[in-house]
Amino acid sequence: MTTRLDCTCLLRDEELSDHLRKGHTLLFKGLGKEWQEIERQVERLGFGETYFVSQLEGHESSTKLSPAITDGLSSPALH
């Protein structure tokens, strides 16, 4: 079972890296405009191939980080 965490601000590298290593899904509420910054941080930390970064639209624009499928059938994230 995947742990989902809701965040209202950007995380420091150490915090984000810890969550990504554990395979958590993170939802950055209200931070839809920062999706490119979050994506760069994920790539810089070495998780660019194992995590999808998605921009979610709606009442409150958000960014979602979710683990990529690791069965060999995954494809690069579409933005």
Structural class of the secondary elements?
alpha+beta
The strand count comes to 4
User: CATH topology, what is it called?
Assistant: Translation Initiation Factor IF3
Q: Summarize the helix and strand pattern as letters.
A: EHEHEE
Average pLDDT, rounded to a whole number, is 86
**Helix tally?**
2
* Low-confidence runs: 72-79
Please tell me the total number of domains: 1
Strand order of the largest sheet: 1-2-4-3
Share in helix: 10-25%
Q: Note the beta-strand portion.
A: 25-35%
Plain-language structure description:
The structure is a single chain. With 79 residues, this protein is of the alpha+beta class. It has a single domain (4-67), classed as Translation Initiation Factor IF3 (2-Layer Sandwich), CATH 3.30.110. Helix content is 24%, strand content 25%. The protein contains two helices and four strands. It has helices at residues 13-21, 35-44; strands at 4-7, 25-28, 51-56, 62-67. The protein has a four-stranded mixed β-sheet, covered by helices on one side. Strand 1, helix 1 (13-21) and strand 2 (25-28) form a beta-alpha-beta unit. The longest helix is centred in the middle third of the chain and has 10 residues, at 35-44.
